[in-house]
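Q: Convert this sequence to structure tokens.
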Amino acid sequence: MEGGSAHESAANLNDQAVRLQAEGKYFEADDLYKKSLAIWESERGPDDQFVAQSLANRASLYRKMGVHDEAERIFQIAQRIWSRRGFPATGDQALWAELLQKDGMLRDFGARVR
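A:
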């Protein structure tokens, strides 16, 4: 699979997962997030910005599912990648499941947890 089409395929799977998550179809979303992540890891390496984005989206899903330990674990991995590599360029992004601030923290997370 050529790099550009692999990236598009991973982005499409990610975007479908974000939509499924918004519809409350959590298990279907998780399957697509995992497939998207696998493509990005194999095509771009485990330390890529899109790998981090995919992990952050899965963390969002796991928080909604109440699997907080796993959500925290994978969100921390995403943050470590972003601290080394930065965020994906704004014009070249797949959908985000949650909004992030420029410092990599989740917007409004504290209010939702309280």
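The chain has five helices and no strands.
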